[in-house]
Design goal:
heterodimer; A: 241 residues; alpha+beta; Arc Repressor Mutant, subunit A; 2 domains; five-stranded antiparallel beta sheet; 10 helices; B: 210 residues; Aminopeptidase; eight-stranded mixed beta sheet; 6 helices; 12 strands; autoinducer synthesis (chain B)
Chain lengths: 241, 210
C-alpha cells in the first residue's frame, strides 16, 4: 500500500497532460483491485461542462456528458450534499431514486457500472469535485478493499484534484500568467462590467474577497489598474476563443 | 518527537500524513473557519501538490499534534501565487536560501499544553524545528504568510516577523507576510525562551547544522 501511494504521488508530479493523469490513477486503482474510476470536477459556472477523467467506457462517458447527467446523477448529488466518502449501488446505502434516476442507473449497469465508492471534495463554498472507484458487481472483496484502503483512497483523491487543477489550468493563463480560479472569475466578471459588489453577489463571496482577488490578479499581471487587467484579459480571450 | 517528511518518503509515512491532514482540518476548517478544500475530515490544498516538505510534531500519545509545510521560494509559493497582494508591490522572494512556511497548526490536549509565558512548549518546539531545518539547508530566512494573532505569538517567542507590507483583510482574518530569521542566534534565542536545550530534529539534521 505504501509503495502504491508513493508511485502514485511520483507519477502525478511527473504528469504533464490528461493522459498521464488518467493512467496514474488507473494504475493505482488497479493495484487496490478497483477496476475503474471517474474523476468529475464541477464547473464554477453551472452552465459550463464539467471536467471528466475516467476509465469508464468512452461510449458511456460521452453519453453522460452530452446528456448533462451530472445534474441528476444521484451519486454526484450525494457528493454535493456531504463531504464524507460513501459506498453506493447493489444494496449499499439507501438512495431514494426518481424514475429518471432509476433509468440512469439501469443505463450505467449496461456498461457494467453497478456500484462504487465515491469521495466528495468541497471547498469553502460547496462541492467542487468527486472521485468514484467503481466495480462490476458488489462482492465482499470490493467492500473490504474500500474499508481497508478508504483513507488512502480519500487522500489520493485530494492529491489528484490538486494536481489536476494545477496541470490542466491552461484556460486561466493570461499574458503568460496562470490566475487562480477565483482570480479568473473575478476578472471575467469585471471585464463584463460588473462592480466588485455585483461580482461578490454572483459568486457568493464577500465584496472585500472579490477586491482581494482582483488585487492579486493585478499584481500577477504586473499592472496597476483594473482597466489594464481587463485589457490583458480581453486580449487573451480574443486569441483563445 | 519531530519528523521531516519529503516527497520520496510520502508512501512510507502515509498514515502520518493523513493524521496531519486531519489536524489541519480541525484547525483551519473547524476552529478558524477558513475557506479551505476538504473531503471528509481531511484538508488538502493545491500547494500540497508541489511536494512540500512537512515538519510533523507528535505528542506523547503518538498522534500528530503539530505541523508546518515548507516549500522552496524558487517554485510556486502561497505568497507568489495566492497572496501576492500582501507583497505591497514588491517582487516575491525567489532564492535557494529562502523557503516558505505555511499551514502552521497545533492542536494540543490540555494536559500537554505546558506553557512558557503563555506560549505552549510545543509551539516553541515547532519554531525550533523550522530553524533547525533552515540551518540544515543553509537558509537565511523563512518567508511566511500568517495572521496578526500568530505574529504576536512569534514576537513574544523571540522570533519576530519582519513585515513585508501592511496587514490586509483576507476572509475572516487579518493576513500579513514577512520574513523569519534563520540563524544560530535565532535558534539560541528560541531554545532559551522555550527552555528547550536539546535539538528537536533527529541526529542527521542536527549534524548537518554542526
Amino acid at each position: 500500500m505504501h509503495r502504491v501511494f508513493q508511485t502514485f504521488i511520483d507519477r502525478l508530479s511527473d504528469s504533464v497532460d490528461r493522459a498521464d493523469l488518467q493512467s496514474a490513477l488507473a494504475d493505482a486503482a488497479a493495484a487496490f483491485g478497483l477496476h475503474c474510476f471517474a474523476y468529475l470536477s464541477l464547473p464554477p459556472r453551472p452552465d459550463d461542462k464539467p471536467l471528466l477523467i475516467s476509465t469508464y467506457p468512452a461510449e458511456w462517458t460521452t453519453h453522460y456528458l452530452q446528456s448533462r447527467y451530472e445534474r441528476f446523477d444521484p451519486v454526484i448529488l450525494q457528493a454535493q450534499h456531504d463531504t464524507e466518502p460513501f459506498e453506493w449501488g447493489l444494496g449499499a446505502g439507501t438512495m431514494i431514486l426518481s424514475k429518471r434516476q432509476q433509468q440512469f442507473f439501469d443505463e450505467a449497469a449496461q456498461f457494467d457500472i453497478r456500484s462504487g465508492f465515491t469521495i466528495p471534495i468541497h471547498d469553502g463554498r460547496g462541492p467542487v469535485a468527486a472521485i468514484t472507484f467503481a466495480a462490476h458487481e458488489r462482492h465482499p472483496a470490493f467492500s473490504r478493499g474500500v474499508e481497508r484502503h478508504g483513507e488512502v483512497l480519500q487522500f489520493m483523491a485530494l492529491h489528484y484534484h490538486a494536481q489536476v487543477r494545477q496541470k490542466l489550468s491552461g484556460d486561466r493563463i493570461i499574458a503568460g500568467v496562470a490566475l487562480s480560479p477565483r482570480e479568473f472569475d473575478c476578472l471575467r466578471w469585471a471585464a463584463l462590467g460588473k462592480s466588485a459588489g455585483d461580482t461578490a453577489d454572483i459568486l457568493g463571496i464577500k465584496r472585500r474577497t472579490t477586491v482581494f482577488h482582483l488585487e492579486n490578479a493585478k499584481q500577477k499581471l504586473g499592472v496597476r489598474t483594473i482597466s489594464q487587467a481587463i485589457a490583458r484579459y480581453s486580449a487573451s480571450t480574443r486569441t483563445t476563443p | 518527537m519531530m519528523q521531516l517528511i519529503s516527497q520520496d518518503h510520502y508512501g512510507e509515512f502515509v498514515e502520518e500524513l493523513a493524521d496531519m491532514y486531519r489536524l489541519r482540518y480541525r484547525v483551519f476548517k473547524q476552529r478558524l473557519d477558513w475557506d479551505v478544500q476538504v473531503s471528509g475530515d481531511l484538508e488538502v490544498d493545491d500547494f500540497d501538490a508541489f511536494h512540500p516538505i512537512y515538519l510533523l510534531q507528535r505528542g506523547r500519545d503518538g498522534r500528530v499534534q503539530g505541523c508546518v509545510r515548507l516549500l522552496p521560494s524558487t517554485g510556486p509559493t502561497m505568497l507568489r501565487d495566492a497572496f501576492g497582494v500582501l507583497l505591497n508591490g514588491e517582487s516575491p522572494p525567489a532564492s535557494p536560501s529562502i523557503w516558505e512556511s505555511s499551514r502552521f497548526a497545533l492542536d494540543l490536549h490540555n494536559d500537554a499544553a505546558a506553557a512558557v509565558s503563555g506560549i505552549a512548549k510545543a509551539t516553541f518546539g515547532l519554531f525550533i524545528g523550522m530553524v533547525e531545518f533552515g540551518l540544515a539547508r543553509g537558509l537565511s530566512a523563512i518567508v511566511t504568510v500568517t495572521d496578526l494573532r500568530m505574529e504576536r505569538i512569534l514576537r513574544r517567542a523571540g522570533w519576530p516577523l519582519k513585515r513585508i507590507g501592511a496587514p490586509q483583510a483576507v476572509g475572516t482574518t487579518r493576513a500579513i507576510a514577512g520574513y523569519l530569521e534563520v540563524s544560530r542566534d535565532a535558534l539560541a534565542r528560541l531554545r532559551r525562551e522555550g527552555g528547550l536545550e536539546q535539538p528537536v530534529l533527529w541526529a542527521p539534521v542536527t549534524m548537518a547544522t554542526a
